[in-house]
Amino acid sequence: GQRVPWVLGTQLHPEVGPLGRAPAGSRVLMIEAREFARRRPYHHDKLTLVFSAMRQFRDELRERGYDVEYITAETFREGLSRYFERHPGDTPVAMRSPSYRSGSRMAELVGEIGGDLDVVDNELFVSTRRAFDEWANGDTDSFRHESFYRWMRRRSGVLLTDDGNPVGGEWNLDDENQEFPPPEWSPPERYEPDHGEAVRETSEWVREEFETWGADEGFRWPTTREQARNVLEQFCERRLPEFGPYQDAMRSRDWAMAHALLSPALNLGLLHPWEAITAIEEAYESREDIPLNSAEGVLRQLLGWREFMRHVYRHAMPELATANQLGAERPLPEFYWSGETEMNCLAETVEDVHERGYAHHIQRLMVLANFATLWGVEPRELNEWFHATYVDAYHWVTTPNVVEMGQYGHGVFATKPYVSSASYVDRMSDYCGDCHYYKTKDTGDRACPFNSLYWDFLARNEEQLRGNHRMGLMYSHVDDKRESGDLAAIRERVDDLREMADAGEL
Ligand code: FAD
Hints:
Elements: E1 3-6, H1 17-21, E2 27-33, H2 44-63, E3 67-73, H3 76-86, E4 91-95, H4 102-113, E5 118-120, H5 129-136, H6 145-156, H7 197-209, H8 225-243, H9 263-268, H10 273-286, H11 292-316, H12 319-322, H13 335-338, H14 344-356, H15 361-375, H16 379-389, H17 395-406, H18 422-428, H19 449-460, H20 462-465, H21 472-484, H22 486-502
Parallel strand pairs: 1-4, 2-3, 4-5
């Protein structure tokens, strides 16, 4: 028997890990399991992306001379059994998936079939498990991103001066990422791959084979390494200069703005995050037109947040998946699926997700998760929704972002809930102008639901949140509203909103 790289569908990089060290001619295992895709109404584009990327990766490896055993099966168990029948005595070597317990589950499965499996470190991240744990230094109950991020900058040397200080003097330019573009601004050019027959066939097959959600025409995501590199190149070349100032802004009918659009490719392994980080840093160093708030703004996400989420997930599972410290138990409103709501910010954002399986970070955080948190949606259900509907969603990255950052479910790294009334959405977007609801009203006919829900949320969760010193100012407003009697009117408005939602009229 031989040791055979087993390439999982989210590890499609030819130069990394066991595959990267196996010479052409080696046997390689890939299993295309379908059962997972039947568990939820996944976005058509997400399934098309995963399956077409795997199939094209197989073809590329074969062209390079690898002997690829590509097994299509309903489950991994079935796929592995077939593999061991054909090659008894082989030991597949897989990089550990970041999903909870996937390494030990795979090993159990292979053990039951009577084979051997070797699970090795996942080299598709920037930091190792050991490095993060060294940074955490035994304290695994709560984590602070800012501290991890600075540590990563120091350790990697990214945007660091020769004497070890942050380039420009500050570590984090977040407050320079919050401008709204002028009306004449148009988003920088975007690279869109020209998909051939292989992708069209897979898209068609997905349409027939699975019960999907979302638009099933116009698939636009990169499915090969070459296309992923083009997205990165175009981002550095054209889009990066404007990324920084407008990172947190939201515009109607402008789904991409100046965002990197790299997460679908990164999360499938088509690009290694180092490749993105070094390309961005090189562009910043060699050109005059890239401001520091752009370079730092995106590197903070790639070197900081993305790595941080993976490790926090690892430490906080399995509790994180069902964490619900605010005891939120309402079901997700139907309009997350249908898009049918008079709230313009939500209608526009759901439409973006329906169309492409993507919305950018502030839409996810301050529209979709914010509303769900204010409404009192059970975090687990919102997590399921994100997992199904986004092209870049995998349990390890969706769960900490939705349950913790979005809904303050656990308190493992968030220090307060990210919630806001209409004023934030209005400041950072152009959604409110065209809306049926009035952004400045709390109560009465056509008052924006975000307002009454915001005050009701604070009042409802007072016991848990009042003691949080970061919320002190907000609770002094709650006190004022309670004294003036406004809070009673706000609660009535919320009751009305709940009835409207039940009738599909929100
Ligand atoms: P840019 O804004 O241009 O950022 C560049 C890169 O940084 C991204 O490609 C991504 O790889 C990384 N990044 C940025 N923020 C985060 C973050 N918070 N966590 C992890 N990586 C980050 N990201 C996912 O990859 N998959 C998800 O399922 C996902 N679900 C989210 C759900 C919610 C409620 C929130 C608030 C955020 C979620 N994110 C998720 C994080 C972030 O919104 C996306 O990574 C980002 O919008 C992807 O678009 P982009 O490539 O254009 O990103």
